[in-house]
Design a protein that fits this description.
Length: 173
């Protein structure tokens, strides 16, 4: 009986580990694709930014999903945000990133993905699990400098979505 319990526990831990690795690989892939998209377009435009963020439509579907066990308060927050207001919030965050990038002389044509670091959060934004992430990238035209930006992912069911991008910083190597 002890061997069966041990085997089942190891199998369970392996499945959890595999699922988490898939999630982390997907998050890293999304961060990488965003950096590639910005570099290919040679600009960090608002439409590019919005295309990588979780949509309000998806957030509303999540609020209506009983499987996610979202609190009434969190549901009310989502339902209380109009499309116009959500668009304004995204524009405010985008403008802050662009302003910091201008200050740091980032050449969007020359950016390159370096890494994505994360911390797991069992209860995160809107009461859902998620990950606090740190996107690391470089501008190939600037030597010995890296840039970091907080990129948070919210888990809606089994899928991660970029929920917030803020706090662009310049770091020396």
């Amino acid at each position: 009986m002890k061997n069966i319990t041990t085997t089942l526990l190891l199998l369970f831990l392996f499945q959890i580990s595999t699922a988490q690795n898939e999630t982390l690989n997907l998050m890293k892939k999304k961060a990488y694709e965003m950096i590639e998209d910005i570099s290919d377009k040679e600009a960090f435009g608002l439409s590019t930014y919005k295309s990588h963020m979780v949509s309000l439509i998806l957030l509303n579907k999540a609020a209506d999903s009983p499987e996610l066990l979202m609190s009434a308060e969190d549901k009310a927050i989502i339902k209380g945000v109009s499309r116009t207001r959500y668009s304004e919030l995204l524009k405010e965050d985008h403008d802050a990133i662009r302003e910091a990038a201008k200050k740091f002389n980032i050449n969007w044509k020359k950016i390159e993905f370096v890494d994505f670091l994360y911390k797991t959060r069992a209860v995160f934004k809107l009461g859902q699990p998620g990950y606090e992430g740190l996107l690391i990238f470089k501008d190939k035209s600037q030597k010995n400098v890296m840039f970091t930006m907080q990129v948070d992912f919210i888990m809606l069911g089994t899928d991660p979505y970029i929920f917030e991008m803020v706090d662009l910083k310049k770091e020396k190597k």
